[in-house]
Amino acid sequence: MSECNHGSNNSRRMTDKLLTVRDLQVRFGEGEGAVRAVDGVSFAIDRGETLALLGESGCGKSMTALALLRLLPQPVGHIAGGQVLLEGQDLLALPEMRMRQVRGGRIAMIFQEPMTSLNPVMTVGRQIGEVLAAHKGLKGRAARARSVELLGLVGIPDAGRRVDEYPHQLSGGMKQRVMIAMALAGEPDLLIADEPTTALDVTIQAQVLELMRDIQRETGMAMLLITHDLGVVAGMADRVAVMYAGQLVEQASRADFFTEPRHPYSRKLFAALPDMDKRDRPLTVIPGTVPTLDQSFHACRFADRCASAWRTCHEVEPAWLEEADGRGVRCHLYDPAHPNPPAAGSEAEPDRLAARSAAPRDLLEVSRLKVHFPIHKGLFKRTVGHVYAVDDVDIHIPTGRTLALVGESGCGKTTVGKAILQLLRPTAGSVRFDGDELTRLRGEALRRRRREFQIIFQDPFSSMNPRMQVGDIIEEGMVAQGLVPDAGARRQRVEELLEQVGLRPEHARRYPHEFSGGQRQRICVARALAVEPRLIICDEPTSALDVSVQAQILNLLKRLQLELDLAYLFITHNISVVAYLADRVAVMYLGRIVEEGPVDRVLTDPQHPYTRALLSAVPRIDTDTGREVIRLEGDIPSPSNPPTGCHFHPRCPQAMERCRQAYPDRFERGSEHWARCWLLE
Amino acid sequence: MLAELTRRLLSTAIVVLGVVVLVFLLIHLIPRDPVDVMLGESASAADREALRQNLGLDRPLGVQLGEYLGGLARGELGHSLHHRRPIVELLAERIPATLELALAALAFTLVLALPLGLLAAVRRNTGWDRGAMAFSLLGVSIPNFWLGPLLILLFSVWLGWLPVSGRESPGALILPALTLGMSLAAVLSRMVRSSVLEVLGEDFIRSAYARGLSTRQVLTRHALPNALLPVITVLGLQLGTLLAGAVITEVVFGWPGLGSLTIEAIQSRDYPLVQVCVLLISLSYVLVNMLTDLLYAWIDPRIRLGESDAG
Ligand SMILES: Nc1ncnc2c1ncn2[C@@H]1O[C@H](COP(=O)(O)OP(=O)(O)OP(=O)(O)O)[C@@H](O)[C@H]1O
Ligand code: SF4
Ligand code: SF4
Ligand SMILES: [Mg+2]
């Protein structure tokens, strides 16, 4: 980009970009040990354009966004250099008074967590009203009327009533809509959206993303979209900027980026994505971890993890190389100044995984499982109803195989897992494990049996005692089950387990907080393996992890399954993980399984309208197939008061009269594939 | 919410009944014959018998309790032995004085603690913060019976600005209210500080700034209302301590309230009066707690409106 220093008139004309960021520096703390969270980031956004900022957790995406509005966490965070030009005017030089007119007026921002981003003791109408008062001079009646109008615009039904409600009365999707309405209230030129849909279910995410696209089309607002989801980028962005360890490493148009990503890190991101075609081999992983940002770098920040790295990479920091069309990359491979990179350490295709034995017999047989939670109300805590969390669920998992249980939040997935493990006593139904009825086991007998079925949770940190050493955490189950009575032999076993999950024996003496999220999840896997289980229930084990780390855990789980003949019940909402890992899929909606079958059949030829909608809502990276997203209206109903007939009928695009009256029977579609929908009759 | 309210009222009623029975039993828990204690060993047998009958001590315990409860229900609180007047009259004189003192102390507490805690939180780790917290530490550690005389010495004896004791001039209220409110203000300012600090770290504060609000608007509209929720609960609990403190403060400043009445009653072994005073103090404690809980529920829409009806 050509620099221009010939007075403000001139520079105004030159910068027809809406926003130009030059060499932005964000630091936490002072002096040597300061964390350089953002280290020389430059980019520009045109009017009406969407720039996606992509990158792993902790690479500085949010701090870049907050710095634009000068809202860094106080008092530690500060901007140490650079320029943020909004139509040529440097925001970093504005007095605070003027900056306030920019915030919410010219640049609005929405955040990842709609649940906590609204003031709980103020009605949503009044919170929107604050923007109208600050930037549009609207007060009282006029402000209220405009708030109702805005809520309607973002698709909130019954806006006249909702405007006077408090945040806790709205669902997550509605709260994010309120945040969008609030952002729109100031009619901004630029919207910064920091992971706006990460906390939402896929069908709700699809609604919100579509809303944002519509609004952008109508208002011509530009957008800086922060995300770590390549699928969301594919559906939303005009251009893509990839961030790694505080710097931009690649910038390209969407088409260029998806057809030919250049930076080795970008390429790895694609390779690490799980999907159906990669089922028979391990996923590509990025070894190692992101470097800490409290150091100064004299090499490529990615060098330790890069398969193409050669000597120069470890000695010289790569410069930003930009082509005329704005495409740029930060990597020596593309630098004419280093003409002779060695033939790139050609990456061998990962070895194929061994084939598995044919049709084993069922290890877990769950039939007609029900878990109903009573709802207590009133003075004497009378039971006034039930939450039908799990209502008549059948599940079969053979030894050494994986069943994926998919569905949106609140549909009862986790409750199924807990009821199988007898962590929750089922209201009715049977759970047979290797032929034995678990629901009848009590006390000591049950405890003995527990070693054969283990669980791994979504949040590895909160499931470990922070004051226990990793070795003790892993050993605990062995001691409780009386396995390996000899302490020395037990230690030996712990070290073996650590190696088995890809950690080092000396890690046994460290504490959980010394590990990254992915490493902690490995510790949880080791803890589960310690008691030599035959079934592991994995409850969203990778949903808190970045794709590159997710790939490591998925590889680990897949390898262990082959080695130890483990059966998995894999609870998730991530369809590509299902495609990669599962043998069979069960789709759950409001406490019931609505479709089940072999993974390739269900994912490629879904029978139930809900499965179809769910699959179509998943953002995918193949952008040009003209795929139609089936839009589901409204939110998931409450399981305490499920709709009559087919639970899905209020949202089903194909609902018929009959669907309102009776719950559909089970209809077979080919061998071992069935769904509950009247359309299949 | 309505069910909650009913439950709350019911449980309060049960507690009140318990308190009444306990206070009634108080007189029977005295290890010696209460009549001896009240009249002294030297009293004549006839006097003792008269008092015994007057107090109804010669009848079975159950009957006594029944009559006692019946009397309370009719608003008959009996006679003071020492003052030789109906207790109701005494209360009518003294309660307004104590209420006046308590309200003044509460007002002083709020006026001091809210801004101080807010200031300390907003300017955390600066001189303001450290100053405010040092002051509050001092306030917590100085007992009323020491602070009271100190203030009297300073403002009444040396400077001569304010009266030493009594309730005659309007200025007389200032020193007792200061003394009584000081430690509560100290506790509360700490509470406000930590609560505001916590709220300032919340996401909705960041989004309020992102809307273009000024710091003052963010603090008054978003931070304070949320930060005060936990403070209200603590305030409710601490008001009990304030009532206890009122007894000492009233004695130090010769304030003619319920507290000094109680002390007088104890000193003169006026048991019927002691009973009523203890009853009143306990009741006000229970009532204050109930009121703060209700206030909390009413202010917080999450409780007032119940959980999500989203969908
Ligand atoms: N208050 C703080 N004090 C010190 N360092 C911080 C603070 N907040 C963030 N950082 C550091 O700044 C860097 C960038 O953080 P940032 O939140 O921008 O990451 P991100 O890319 O948004 O990650 P995520 O995808 O997890 O949201 C990280 O290394 C982080 O550790
Ligand atoms: S500069 Fe070298 S180490 Fe860095 S990404 Fe390019 S090839 Fe890899
Ligand atoms: S049964 Fe009816 S409402 Fe239910 S999924 Fe099938 S078509 Fe839709
Ligand atoms: Mg972030």
TrEMBL record, chain B:
<protein>
    <submittedName>
        <fullName>ABC transporter permease</fullName>
    </submittedName>
</protein>
<keyword id="KW-0813">Transport</keyword>
<keyword id="KW-1003">Cell membrane</keyword>
<dbReference type="InterPro" id="IPR035906">
    <property type="entry name" value="MetI-like_sf"/>
</dbReference>
<keyword id="KW-1133">Transmembrane helix</keyword>
<dbReference type="InterPro" id="IPR050045">
    <property type="entry name" value="Opp2B"/>
</dbReference>
<feature type="transmembrane region" description="Helical">
    <location>
        <begin position="101"/>
        <end position="122"/>
    </location>
</feature>
<feature type="transmembrane region" description="Helical">
    <location>
        <begin position="171"/>
        <end position="188"/>
    </location>
</feature>
<feature type="transmembrane region" description="Helical">
    <location>
        <begin position="9"/>
        <end position="30"/>
    </location>
</feature>
<keyword id="KW-0921">Nickel transport</keyword>
<feature type="transmembrane region" description="Helical">
    <location>
        <begin position="273"/>
        <end position="299"/>
    </location>
</feature>
<keyword id="KW-0406">Ion transport</keyword>
<dbReference type="Pfam" id="PF19300">
    <property type="entry name" value="BPD_transp_1_N"/>
</dbReference>
<dbReference type="GO" id="GO:0015099">
    <property type="term" value="F:nickel cation transmembrane transporter activity"/>
</dbReference>
<dbReference type="InterPro" id="IPR000515">
    <property type="entry name" value="MetI-like"/>
</dbReference>
<dbReference type="GO" id="GO:0005886">
    <property type="term" value="C:plasma membrane"/>
</dbReference>
<keyword id="KW-0812">Transmembrane</keyword>
<comment type="similarity">
    <text>Belongs to the binding-protein-dependent transport system permease family. OppBC subfamily.</text>
</comment>
<keyword id="KW-0533">Nickel</keyword>
<feature type="transmembrane region" description="Helical">
    <location>
        <begin position="227"/>
        <end position="253"/>
    </location>
</feature>
<feature type="domain" description="ABC transmembrane type-1">
    <location>
        <begin position="95"/>
        <end position="292"/>
    </location>
</feature>
<feature type="transmembrane region" description="Helical">
    <location>
        <begin position="134"/>
        <end position="159"/>
    </location>
</feature>
<dbReference type="Pfam" id="PF00528">
    <property type="entry name" value="BPD_transp_1"/>
</dbReference>
<dbReference type="InterPro" id="IPR045621">
    <property type="entry name" value="BPD_transp_1_N"/>
</dbReference>
<keyword id="KW-0472">Membrane</keyword>
